[in-house]
Amino acid sequence: MGKYQSSRAEACLICEEYKLEGIHLFESFICMDCEREIVNTKTNDPKYRFFVHQMGKARTLQERRQA
Fold this sequence. Notes:
By secondary structure, the chain is an alpha+beta fold. Helix content is 43%, strand content 31%. This is Carnitine--CoA ligase.
């Protein structure tokens, strides 16, 4: 899993906005802004649950692709 920059925007798994820079988790894209916010969010922050929920979608998408 490494930093990624593309000439074509991709939809972020977390914020669902189209961005050029970010990382791939499995085959899902997370933009740099969301990655930074996730890393800096404390587990007792209400946003943390949202991030966990959104990242759970990556696993669901991966399972669908393998089926």
